[in-house]
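During the no-cost extension, the postdoctoral fellow (Dr. R.K.) reprocessed legacy sequence entries with the updated structure-token encoder. One reprocessed record is reproduced below for audit purposes.
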Amino acid sequence: MLSIRIRFFAGHRDIVGQAELSLEVQDEATIGMVWEDLCVHYPRLAGYSGRILFAVNQQFATATTLLADGDEVAFIPPVSGGRS
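Re-encoded structure tokens follow.
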């Protein structure tokens, strides 16, 4: 088992109800697998699928990125706003 820390921002944080979550995942888990599991536990997150960025240890990643023990994972929701 791997121990990871997940960081949530904006709407994700509102859905989950906290900014960080510690989680135990299976060896050879990918960031995409973790996202899918979170969507099962927090169904409203599924609405963001296909529109988020993944990061591992503050580096952009893909859904197929393998995780390691102690990794910090972030799911970054789409952002908008600003002035034109």
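The mean pLDDT is 92. Strands lie at 2-8, 20-25, 53-56, 59-61, 72-76. The remaining legacy entries will be reprocessed before the final report is submitted.
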